[in-house]
């Protein structure tokens, strides 16, 4: 895992050199700045069952709050029997900057991969349930619509995790609980 993160960090550093829209941060996060409202723009997974309609990990996170004990709170809605139900989960801090863990449908590691705090944030989640490992990546925007460039950035990061365009779903205007 450490090696993967190191290699990924290196690849992202190289990619960052060509990405000058905003100053994107890939480590040593100021997590307090991640707090606030976000809109789900895109999702990707190596098992589409999880993020397609009725998928366990198709979570429309709408608000993120960095808590004063350094844990990270996510507010989202899920559909239960056709009704929108509000859910709050708190992910526990780990010793790594931007990395959190939570038990939800198995064991999960949540990693903030990249953000500029003001426009976009990309998260990677790894779920391990009964020995099966599933990855989900998500792109959030501070606004409902964000520039194509962020989508391209997301696609590049998905590629680093081994996911291609067939693994990516556009989630804009798919969040029926907020429409
Ligand atoms: C994807 O996840 C579903 C639900 O857990 C599982 O039944 C299926 O076997 C998985 N598919 C692959 C290719 O791992
Ligand atoms: C941390 O947040 C909790 C809940 O919002 C609050 O009750 C508590 O006073 C806060 N602690 C500090 C040290 O700010
Ligand atoms: C876990 O995996 C084992 C072996 O593949 C299987 O027999 C068992 O039913 C699974 N348990 C659950 C809760 O999915």
From TrEMBL:
Listed InterPro entries: Calycin, Lipocalin, Lipocalin_CS, Lipocln_cytosolic_FA-bd_dom, Maj_urinary
Gene3D superfamilies referenced in this protein's UniProt entry, alphabetically: 2.40.128.20
This protein's record includes keyword NADP: no
Record's keyword annotation contains Signal: yes
Family note: Belongs to the calycin superfamily. Lipocalin family.
Gene that specifies this protein: Lcn9
Protein name, as recorded: Lipocalin 9
Organism: Rattus norvegicus
Keyword list, A-Z: Disulfide bond, Secreted, Signal
């Amino acid at each position: 895992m450490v090696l993967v993160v190191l290699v990924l960090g290196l690849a992202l550093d190289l990619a960052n050199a060509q990405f000058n829209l905003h100053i994107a941060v890939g480590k040593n996060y100021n997590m307090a700045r991640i707090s606030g409202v976000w809109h789900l723009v895109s999702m990707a997974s190596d098992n589409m069952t999880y993020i397609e309609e009725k998928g366990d990990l198709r979570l429309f996170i709408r608000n993120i709050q960095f808590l004063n004990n350094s844990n990270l709170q996510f507010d989202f809605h899920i559909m239960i029997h056709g009704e929108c139900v509000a859910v709050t989960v708190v992910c526990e801090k780990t010793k790594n900057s931007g990395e959190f863990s939570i038990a939800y449908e198995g064991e999960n590691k949540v990693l903030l991969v990249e953000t500029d705090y003001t426009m976009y944030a990309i998260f990677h989640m790894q779920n391990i349930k009964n020995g099966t490992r599933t990855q989900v990546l998500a792109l959030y925007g501070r606004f409902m619509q964000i520039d194509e460039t962020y989508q391209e950035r997301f696609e590049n990061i998905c590629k680093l995790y081994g996911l291609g365009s067939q693994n990516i779903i556009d989630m804009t205007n798919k969040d029926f609980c907020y429409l």
